[in-house]
Amino acid sequence: MSEKAVFDADITLLKDKVVSIIGYGNQGRAQGHILRENGIDVIIGNIRDEYWDQAVKDGFKVYEIDDAIRRSQVALLLVPDEVAPDVYYKKIEPEVRKKEHFVLDFASGYNIMYGFIKPQPNTDVILVAPRMIGRGILNLHKQKRGYPVLLGVAQDSSGKAWDYAKAIAKGIGAIGLPGGIAIKSSFEEETLLDLLTEHSWAPLLIAAMQAYFDVVTEEYGVSPEAAILELYASGELSDIAKAMAEIGLFEQMKFHSRTSQYGQFTRARKFYNRVKEIVREEAARIWSGEFAREWSLDQAFGRVVLQRLWKIMTSSKLAKAEDRLYRQLGRR
User: Fold this and answer.
1) Please, which residues bridge with residue 125 across strands?
2) How far is residue 278's CA from residue 284's CA, in Å, rounded to a whole number?
């Protein structure tokens, strides 16, 4: 096993600290619950919205974000990437300036890699990035199982930044349990991997499904319902993905017929060179900061492109047929 792999850690470093969860959304709720179960003094920092109400209902002490930072020595910044800089400079940094030392944990490398957030010199800047959605984290925790995270250190003010990163990974239930592993990584590596997923195979999957649906329904008269069930609505795709996670990409192919194996392997070679070139281009745009500039520009203009694409996608024949089918199935 690589020396970068971490399977357990000492959580003691957090035991005498107050840890604030900034943003009680998908990740915030999951990580907050598990930290509390592991004996850590956890408070929540949030704006007054439905997530504030949920945190109160869940039994947490909830404060305005600046007040939560004032009361804590460690903070997990778990708000969306596009919101985080505003939250940091308006609510977090003024309080951190008053402290001798502070630990600021990120679940995404984005804002540090691109310089949208530049923490104060008295701050340990660490990355504990779960490779799992919040609901998945909680489900695994109920089964007493861990999950993968990436760890990184961008600034080591105390000399203990890596220890804090590992302690948080332990505290949120990622390591120290069966199936748990932390990989020593970096803010840059996490950002590249995360964004490249969103710019390569994930959009390729959407495009392939749309093309498949249009061809079989428009050119071969296949019923939309049958096409969508074959594509993803049956749940077979999620079972295949689960098998990939459990035994690997190629081992799970043994669960497919030989006809399926032959078709997938031969056509994978057909697509490979074209797809690799797109992946290479997208990786370069992410690494250079071009994508960050593009996305920031769209945000500055009110997310015009994102909203327009949502309208185009949800007006497609596939989206309309899916809505009809899912209503018939009682899923909507």
Assistant:
1) 104, 155
2) 10
Closest CA to 161 of 191, 126, 194: 126
190: nearest Cα among 138, 74, 112 = 112
220-225 contact pairs (CB < 8 A, 24+):
224/317, 224/318, 224/321, 224/324, 224/325, 225/321, 225/324, 225/325, 225/328
Residue 181, pLDDT above cutoff 80: yes
Task: Note if the pTM is more than 0.70.
Answer: yes
Tokens 């020396």 found at: 3
Largest pairwise CA distance in the chain: 69
Position 3 scores a pLDDT of 81
The CA-based dihedral angle spanning residues 207, 211, 212, 216, taken in that order and rounded to the nearest 10 degrees: 160
- List, for residues 13-66, the tens digit of each pLDDT value: 999 999 999 999 999 999 999 999 999 999 999 999 999 999 999 999 999 999
